[in-house]
Q: What sequence folds into this?
């Protein structure tokens, strides 16, 4: 009797084992994301969107173990972080360079370690033309995801050029402006500075640069520079061009403090279309901004990372369009 029972039990167990679905652990990919500086309004939107989007792509079979680090605007720190990512055996690295002039060395390390490298937001130095990136992006596992900053600069210039008075408030025949620049090494800053003014000149307007200062993308710097310029040049300042919205937010504070009124005796434009700036455009306290599509770019960056993780071929460039933002009619 005991024997029969034992046999039955053994048989049941064998059946149970056979009937159970084969258990496969999900495949987990390790992704390292190095951000140039967490304390940057635009990159905060961008990085949070990447994290959310990676999560949304997870299935029972595929997981993404994402580690994100703050380069604190220090290239030495970011180099250490890249070394750590390599030692930790990351399957892919998303890199928002602190210094684009250090692109070669940073990318070489990652490529040598056989890890796909997805550059975001800060385009390695050079022109968008094919020739400039040889040696940097000329590699099957390296790409850049971003937006062509020339377009954003052109849109800023057009926003002013399309005003009834074309930015020439005092009617002296020239548009007198101040330019508040981002990090001077950054191609976005260079292109926005150049192309905003080029758009005005190309449209046949005369321009006068009263001042051009480095604000390093930071709100507090934008405020300081704009306040100083308003104190120095007074009513002469007709247009304040800011390479990004964070600095435009600072400039808006300075403009208000100086008793000036956007849309009446001064104009103010930025880039990024941060939520608070879109509101300001709509209530008239900013003349316009340009959408730097953080969602579109972060999704494109994650999508191409997933492609690379799946061993699929990737392109060297992925471009996302800017969009002009002015007051809703
Ligand atoms: C954005 C800036 C940001 C910078 C960081 C630019 O594309 O417009 O807001 O501070 O990237 O590199």
A:
């Amino acid at each position: 009797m005991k024997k029969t029972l034992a046999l039955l039990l053994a048989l049941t167990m064998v059946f149970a084992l056979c009937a159970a679905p084969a258990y496969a652990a999900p495949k987990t990919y390790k992704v390292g994301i190095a951000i140039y500086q967490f304390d940057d309004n635009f990159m905060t939107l961008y990085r949070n969107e990447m994290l959310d989007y990676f999560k949304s792509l997870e299935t029972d079979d595929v997981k993404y173990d994402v580690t994100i680090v703050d380069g604190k605007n220090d290239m030495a720190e970011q180099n250490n972080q890249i070394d750590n990512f390599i030692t930790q055996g990351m399957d892919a690295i998303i890199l928002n360079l602190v210094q684009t002039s250090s692109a070669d060395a940073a990318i070489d390390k990652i490529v040598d370690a056989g890890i796909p490298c997805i550059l975001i937001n800060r385009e390695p130095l050079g022109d968008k033309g094919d020739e400039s990136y040889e040696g940097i992006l000329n590699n099957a596992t390296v790409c850049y995801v971003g937006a062509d900053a020339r377009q954003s600069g052109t849109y800023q210039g057009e926003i002013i050029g399309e005003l009834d008075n074309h930015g020439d408030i005092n009617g002296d025949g020239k548009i007198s402006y101040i330019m508040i620049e981002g990090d001077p090494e950054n191609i976005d800053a260079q292109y926005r500075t150049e192309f905003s003014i080029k758009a005005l000149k190309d449209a046949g307007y005369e321009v006068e640069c009263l001042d051009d200062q480095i604000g390093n993308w930071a709100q507090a710097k934008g405020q300081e520079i704009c306040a100083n310029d308003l104190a120095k040049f007074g009513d002469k300042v007709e247009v304040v061009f800011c390479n990004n919205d964070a600095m435009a937010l600072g400039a808006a504070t300075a403009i208000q403090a100086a008793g000036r009124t956007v849309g009446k005796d001064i104009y103010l434009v930025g880039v990024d279309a941060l939520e608070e700036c879109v509101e300001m455009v709509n209530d008239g306290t900013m003349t316009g901004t340009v959408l730097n599509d953080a969602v579109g770019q972060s999704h494109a960056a994650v999508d191409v990372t997933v492609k690379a993780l799946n061993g699929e071929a990737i392109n060297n460039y992925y471009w996302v369009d800017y969009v002009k933002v002015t007051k809703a009619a």
Residues 230 and 258 are 7 Å apart (CA to CA). The pocket of beta-D-glucopyranose is lined by residues 36, 40, 42-43, 121-122, 186, 188, 217, 244, 246, 271-272, 292 (CB under 6 Å). DSSP finds ten helices and twelve strands in the chain.
